[in-house]
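Ticket #4471: structure output looks truncated?

Reporter: J.K.
Steps to reproduce: submitted the chain below (299 residues) through the standard prediction queue, then opened the result file.
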Amino acid sequence: MPSALPVIQTELPTLPRFRTGKVRDVYDLGDTLLLVATDRISAFDYVLGSGIPDKGKVLTQLSAFWFDTLADVVPNHFLTLDVARFPEAAQPFAEMLRGRTMLTTKTRPIDIECVARGYLAGSGWKEYRERGTVCGITLPAGLRESDRLPAPIFTPATKAASGHDINIDEAEATRLLGDPALFARLRTLTLELYGRAWAHAESRGIILADTKFEFGFHGDTLLLIDEALTPDSSRFWPADQYAPGGPQPSFDKQFVRDYLESIRWNKQPPVPSLPDDVVARTREKYLDAFGRLTGRQLL
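Returned output as attached by the reporter:
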């Protein structure tokens, strides 16, 4: 069973709140942001009634690992996990913030999600079955669900404030950005980041099927922002159980989605809570992914 109560929400009255997302509470410190990853979990566009203890710590510390590992590919917004280096106004909340919070540079976010896919799954598999394409990219005939693609592809998406992000093609992404050169740069960086991360994960017995990145500008400098290569933003599959031709066991919240499907929730309010065994198993999956990928203990 989980050993600690989940952190479902944060209230830091001495700090101005910047925004509240499905998982993160973000506080505005002027030139920097304080990103607090709670233990909230969402599925089918809703935040569920149960949290997953330590999930926020996994997201934060795994992102910090990847920001450090991939910093030579592109600079990022990460500054520190050290609560002692947070502003004085945050110090009364140090115990709650520790391990689940990062101080970051504030940027002007780019308004598309940068998705890299190396395997045929999720919305990509659905589109391929219907049209033989993924985000307008034609793929070879005869591929099965979860098959590895001939080469990784860049499939951007719109960033929805609520609900599902929407896959778009290259032309629409370029139109939204208003800059073909920026689109080309984002595609190159996304695929390079994916390739590097895939190779590291493969060396740890994990398949990185797909992932999404976000970028922003600090002045004229392009930075990798938000989270990076976590079970919330990626599909991680155990390599020793990989069997294309159907869905794969995973280290992400697919376990939660499968439970919600099994109880035939109509994906409308009221939002269900999760039973203790589903909470505990999901926590184990997040911790397992963190340990395998980083070789570290969660702080």
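Triage note (M.O.): checked the attachment and the full token line is present. The domain at 109-241 is CATH 3.30.470.20 (D-amino Acid Aminotransferase; Chain A, domain 1).
Status: closed, working as intended.
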